[in-house]
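QA checklist item 7 of 12: single-chain prediction sanity check.
[x] sequence parsed
[x] length recorded as 427
[x] structure emitted
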Amino acid sequence: MPGDWSQLIVGGTVLIRTLQIGARVAAGIMTLFCAGCIITPGSGPLGADVQRAKEGSEPAALPYALIKLTPEVVNILGQHIPRLSTAFAAQTPPKAFRFGIGDIVSVTIFEAAAGGLFTSDAGVRAGNFVTIPNQAVDEQGNIAVPYAGSIRAKGRTPFEISKEITDKLKARALEPQVVVNLATQNTSLITVLGDVRTAGRFPASPSGERVLDAIARAGGPSAQGYDTWVSLKRMGHRASVPFGALMYEPANDIYVLPNDVIYLFNMPQTFVGFGAGGTQGLFKFDAWRLSLAEAIGKQGGLNDSQADPASVYLYRGETRAIAKEIGVDVTPFQGEIIPIIFHVNLRDPSGYFLAQSFAMRNKDVIYTSNSVSVETTKFLVFLRTILATVNDPIIYATNFYALKAAASGTGTTTIITTPPPITTTTP
């Protein structure tokens, strides 16, 4: 019997010491938690973590700027939506047609009466004219006209060429008049490629035509418009916009110029949703334009049991010029693209109006942080698991000693449990 009691005392001592150790461990873990070292699982940073890294209190693998979404920021970004009208300065209608090397030229010379340089008395024809056989502008940019010699044609209009020929024939022909026409257009062409029904090269219209006109000449897009992009290449410079931008923003439908290349390609616009949104994953716009509010709705809204509405973030890269305009200090950053996190507070009712006006861009990332209470709950569950892991062997050992004492049939057995002990008396 004394041996049994000594075993109980030893077991109790072990239990007390173990509980003390567990308490110290729990206190240490709580200290780490309060210091910001999150050890529980999560889908991303808390709102406070985003703020701390932005202020430099914690090192970040890639420096970034944190910008609060305001009406001023939304207006500035709206002015810098990619447009063909801003990417290309030449928005006016094409100027008069000018010949290039390879174009086929037709020249007709009229004289005032028969018996002149090009007409004879025996062969009088109505109008007294002669048409020179069609000829191409040669590699030097010239054409040849009898009795006028070599005439510069490259880069000149038909009127300019006809005037020079007339001046050179005045001394030899009878009041000559010259008509110069384009027989075959081989240089001033517009190329339309990609997802169109009839790709090819088309002569540029002297009256001027716009991007949509050129696409229509190629048979129009072969796929859904909201997944189609239009890329315009001109003199080594290229810019791309969604096809819908040409339809709904007339400023984008600029005039095409000779030698422009238009390329249509199918590339669905997408964004990524992470964090405490309704669903995480990759989402298609399924439209040529999408607002932040619509994007959050596509994601399934915010998770009511997890999300912190005050900590909704959108990740995007902006050019240095735009970043500076919205108030970012760009001096610490290198390169042309500045990483920016836009912060919108949806606890503020006005935040939904801002989200409705904020236009999404292809490959944007939306992240919604967990609420602090969710992280606290996860930590308490984690802490309870640790304490249970420490207590379980002690409880098993104590119950073993209690059962052994009870089996002897004598004395008072104290069964140590959690939370309070239970005392029983054996008759």
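[x] summary fact logged: The first strand starts at residue 65 and ends at 68.
[ ] second reviewer sign-off
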